[in-house]
Amino acid sequence: TRILTVGAAQLGPIQREESRGSAVARMIELMRQAKSNGCDLVVYPEAALTAFFPHWWMDDDAEIDAYFESAMPSNETAPLFAEAERLGIGFHLGYPELAFEDGRKRRFNTAIIVDKSGKIVGKYRKIHLPGHPEHRPDAVFQNLEKRYFETGNLGWPVWETMGGRLGMMICNDRRWPESYRVMGLQGVEMIVLGYNTPKHNPPAPAHDRLGNFHNQLVMQAGAYQNATWVVGVAKAGLEAGVDQIGGSCIIAPTGEVVAQAVTEGDELVVARCDLDLGNSYKNSTFNFARHREPQCYGMIVER
Ligand code: CDT
């Protein structure tokens, strides 16, 4: 057995007027709880430092950029890195990233893995961006990720760190089997992800009653079908007028939920994860080399 003890650090709402410093202080409190619960790694939500701004329309470039980080660590997140290093605990953090690449400013919905020495060992940029680029003034809230972010350009690598093979995805990525499978093909042992998922889906309100079910359904299926742990962490509760699901959970390679949040506030959920638990699946039912038939899967990448 190879045990990686993980803390899913769910955050309750962060209101528009709350500073990043205040959000980071809440995250440090959860990090300390994680350490005292024996965690090696603490996992924070998507875009964890502010209210989830794709839920409202902004025209002004400077106003948009103010929600992004152009350096990591930034001044406001430096205390989180320092505390992690002091405690000797790794963490996963989602944040909007302002990059200067290919001679222009680019915006991504990004996440990182930081190891126990405080070093950034992996970076991922969200690939499946939900929502719409145009203003929908009649909707009760916006879902403007297609306006504020570009499609991620880093693929889905996996990283050997903290004794395991770890990968990342972000929120909407978890609904797509391809996200898991690309990492599954690299032998991933734990996928960490954060999410901001409204309870109400304006284009399809009939789905609203199924939000928590679908959240769990996709992560459990992804975990089992790829013989990997999945750690999904919410920013939950009523934030800037948008009510978001909680349900942060840690899912085993068996597909079973082993720990789950019971509130919609700041809450730490802990599990001792045996990274070898997926081996019997990787060697039998999901022995990809033996049982996959990729010559039949072409349509998946052709359209
Ligand atoms: N942040 C994010 O990706 N949220 C989306 C909302 C889409 S509504 C089905 C999600 O997939 O949870």
TrEMBL record:
Residues 4-277 form the CN hydrolase domain. Signal peptide: none annotated. It comes from Bosea vestrisii. The lineage of its organism: Bacteria, Pseudomonadati, Pseudomonadota, Alphaproteobacteria, Hyphomicrobiales. Keywords: Hydrolase. The keyword Zinc-finger does not apply. InterPro entries: Aliph_Amidase/BUP, C-N_Hydrolase, C-N_Hydrolase_sf. This is N-carbamoyl-D-amino-acid hydrolase. Pfam families: CN_hydrolase (PF00795). GO terms for molecular function: hydrolase activity.
